[in-house]
Amino acid sequence: MDSPRAALLRPILTLTINPALDVSTSTEHVVSEHKMRCGRSRLDPGGGGVNVARVVQRLGGQALAVYTAGGPTGEAFRRLIEAELIPTLAVPIHGSTRESFTVDETGTGKQFRFVLEGPELSETEWRACLAVVGESIPVGGYVVASGSLPPGVPDDFYARVTRLAHGRDARCIVDTSGPALAAALDEGVYLVKPSGRELGELVGATLDTEQSKIDAAAELVARGSAEVVALTLGGAGAVLASASGIIRLGVPQVTVQSTVGAGDSFLGAFVLRIAQGFPVDRAFQAAVAAGTATAMTPATELCHRVDVERLEAELVALA
Length: 319
Description:
The chain is α/β, with parallel strands linked by helices.
């Protein structure tokens, strides 16, 4: 969606401290103790922040992607992301960048996802990553810290990133889980995208109904943990809570091929539209459109701009 707002784009930085080389393939049936012949494989540079930067780029924006890289896998990862012409800053580490595997079972339509832990980072390495982020945060811009923390990295790592962002008058978006998410929320972030289960853990309650999830999202906003809370409800749609109230959107009806990367695409479109100066409700529509467009693509493929803009226009027309 071309717009004069693109010229006003506030800078975006993404951080991926635990990236993954995404390997995807297919086989007719997954059977234990059998040698399974697979179809063609696909390699993509993956990990939360990296995928956010890739989606921002696909939708006509630009983000600086900071990530760690090590070993032969890290070198392959570096070549793949640089081939997409995304501005990057790679922080070298001793261990080898992890891999993730996605196998589509063509006989049943099921998908199997195997996510490896990642290399252990030394204190020197994670502090080096933090230093690069601190030096690169755009004043008045946006920081998207996304993905799991690898072994060796303290639970308050994203909280430290959030403090650095605050020091540069930048808005911080955090997409992770567990203690790392809780620590970041203690600092107060701009946007968070927990699952229903993670949301329940954060507020200390079992959320069995849609309304209880919406109430819990509103509670995070009310107590100042996040300015905006995004909550996807699967086929039931998505909810955005902010000081302005609750926004509810249905999901466009499409044929789902794979949900890998849908959440990252949601964040990529959201931060791009906000950085372009659009209001929260329009950014939310773009985010739902991008997440849905990614679900239309196979394996680890991300959304295509033409699909995002078509679905976004549909959601805007229905508003």
